[in-house]
Amino acid sequence: MLHPNAGAGSFDTEVYDESTGTFVPGTVQTYSLIRYVEPGVEDLDTFPVDWEFYRTEDELWGSATIRQALREIDDLKAEAWPDDVIEDLERTKKRQLWIRMLSEAELGPLPRFWGSLGIEPNRRSAMDYVVAQNIVATTPPGITEDDKAYTGDTFFEYGLTDSGAIVWEPFWNADYNLPYGTRFAAGVTQQDAADPWFRYEYDPTDPNSNPLDAEIGTPFRPRLPEVVKLRATFKYESPYIGAPDLERSFEQVIDIPCGYMRSVPAGGP
């Protein structure tokens, strides 16, 4: 993930001014891609976080944020949602909270994971976790409290290949991909427990009826995406006076070996 502080920097350069259509003196902000490998973890649902501890401790920094996020899902029981839906949503929320804890963006108080390791992201010790530097972003990186408000630069996207044009999503197996534009939480969701959209039956007479496609990429059918897109722009300050700064952009689509789960493109055999 990109971190707002670890390996971040800035330098004076020329930036494009859309109002005049020319390049003018300005400052470019760059960020770094950091990686943390969780020791001994082989799945997406094991974290070095004691969730129940944060549910019950009122005085810990970030505990209120975690407690409220999980309570909003627990309270769906009172709205007659079945246990399997609540369990899927809770697993997804914990993954999102964990990524937000790693990103350490100031988007609501959460426990500072890097601080718990004795690492300050704005110091040299954090550089051991940096895998790429000088990535240009128009806004400081971070994940919002609600995926659906996500408006930052998109560096990773995920999709399926079962249509003529791949529909790319900035999150996968996440509540971002749920319809209606609202969080799936008690008192907020527009889903109807008596007639949920993801439980529609397949209608063989309707060519557009494919409830399986609607579920893929959401918390209710976790699976690998079939393709992942990486996209970024790197910018480096020129070491020579009067020479232009070095800027390089790249985009790469990677097929994921998901074997028998791969879908058939539209019009294919």
Structure write-up:
By secondary structure, the chain is α+β, with helices and mostly antiparallel strands. The protein has one domain (2-261). The protein contains five helices and seven strands. The strands form two sheets. Strands 1, 2, 3 and 4 form a four-stranded antiparallel beta sheet that branches. The protein is globular, with a radius of gyration of 21 Å. The two termini are 38 Å apart. Mean pLDDT is 78; it is low at 265-269.
Tally of individual helices: 5
Task: Return the average pLDDT rounded to an integer.
Answer: 78
| Cα separation of the termini | 38 Å
Shape: globular
The domain tally reads 1
Report the β-strand fraction as a percent range. 15-25%
The strand count comes to 7
H and E order: EEEHHHHEEHEE
Radius of gyration: 21 Å
In terms of topology, how is this protein built?
Layout: E1 2-3, E2 9-17, E3 22-34, H1 51-56, H2 63-74, H3 83-103, H4 113-116, E4 130-136, E5 156-159, H5 211-215, E6 227-236, E7 246-255
Antiparallel strand pairs: 1-3, 2-3, 3-4, 5-6, 6-7
Helix pairs in contact: 2-3
